[in-house]
Design brief:
With 220 residues, this protein is of the alpha+beta class. The chain has eight helices and four strands, in the order βαβαββαααααα. It has a domain of 103 residues: Glutathione S-transferase Yfyf (Class Pi), Chain A, domain 2 (Up-down Bundle). The chain has a four-stranded mixed sheet, sandwiched between helices. Helix 1 runs antiparallel to helix 6 and helix 5 crosses helix 7. It is globular. The structure holds glutathione.
C-alpha cells in the first residue's frame, strides 16, 4: 500500500482528509494513533514533532505530509482522480482555498477551544468562541442561500473542511432555527457517501467525545 494515514477516527481534521480520500477513491492503509499511548505519540512526533494528526506517509515518494489542507493538495497532485477537489482555474481555486481556511480557522478553531476546555476542565469563559461560531453560521446562512456547495459548483476541498467542522460545532452551539440554508447545506453534507462512511467509522468512538450526548441520535 503506497499511503499510510496516521489519524484518529474521532478527529475532525482527520475526517476532512478521510472525506477527500473516499471522494477520490484513493487506496491507503490506516494507522490509528492513540495520543494517550506514549509509543503512539512518539511515533506521530517522529513524523511531525508538533504531534498533530492527520499525517500521511507516501511510501513511494518517501515523504511525510502533515496538515489537512496540504495533504489534500498533495493527494490531488499525485493520487487525484476526477472530478478534482481543487479546481484547475486559478480564481476558482482561490475561492475554494479561502473557504477551506474559513472552516478551519473560524469553525474548527472555536470548536476545538470549547472541546479542549471540557477535556482539560479549565472552565474558561467561552462566550467569545460561541459568539464567533454564531458569526460564522450567519455568514454561511447568507452564502448558502444561492449555492449547493460552499465554494465551487462541485464538491470541493472547502466542503471536506465544512463537513466535520459543522458536525462537531453544532453539538456545541446549535444552528439558529431560522438558518434554513445552513441547515440544508449540512443535510447535503451528511448525505454525501464519503462523509456518511466517515461517520459510520467514527460511531464506535463517539462515546469518548466530551459532548457525546449532544450528537444527534441519528448519527450515534
Ligand atoms: N492545522 C492542522 C490541525 C490538526 C489538529 O489540530 N489536529 C488535532 C485533532 S483534530 C490534534 O492533533 N490534536 C491533538 C493535540 O493537539 O494534541 C490540520 O489542518 O491538520
Amino acid at each position: 500500500m503506497p499511503l499510510t494515514l496516521y489519524f484518529h477516527p474521532l478527529s475532525s481534521f482527520c475526517h476532512k482528509v478521510l472525506i477527500a480520500l473516499y471522494e477520490q477513491g484513493v487506496a491507503f492503509e490506516k494507522r490509528i494513533i492513540d495520543l494517550a499511548n506514549d509509543a503512539d505519540r512518539a511515533e506521530l512526533q517522529s513524523l511531525w514533532p508538533l504531534g498533530k494528526f492527520p499525517v500521511i506517509r507516501d511510501h513511494a515518494r518517501q515523504r511525510d505530509v502533515p496538515e489537512s489542507s496540504v495533504i489534500i493538495e498533495y493527494l490531488e497532485r499525485f493520487y487525484g482522480g476526477a472530478p478534482p477537489l481543487i479546481p484547475q482555474d486559478w480564481d476558482s481555486a482561490l475561492e475554494v482555498r479561502l473557504w477551506d481556511r474559513f472552516f478551519d480557522n473560524y469553525v474548527q478553531g472555536p470548536m476545538q477551544q470549547i472541546v479542549a476546555d471540557r477535556l482539560y476542565g479549565t472552565n474558561g469563559d467561552l462566550s467569545q468562541q460561541r459568539s464567533n461560531l454564531l458569526t460564522a453560521y450567519a455568514m454561511l446562512e447568507r452564502r448558502m442561500a444561492s449555492r449547493i456547495w460552499a465554494a465551487s459548483p462541485d464538491f470541493s476541498l472547502a466542503d471536506c473542511a465544512a463537513a466535520p467542522a459543522l458536525f462537531y460545532a453544532r453539538t456545541l452551539v446549535a444552528f439558529p432555527e431560522d438558518h434554513r440554508h445552513l441547515s440544508a447545506y449540512f443535510e447535503r453534507l451528511v448525505q454525501r457517501p464519503s462523509f456518511r462512511r466517515v461517520i459510520d467509522e467514527a460511531r464506535p468512538y463517539f462515546v469518548y467525545y466530551p459532548f457525546a450526548e449532544a450528537i444527534e441520535q441519528r448519527f450515534r
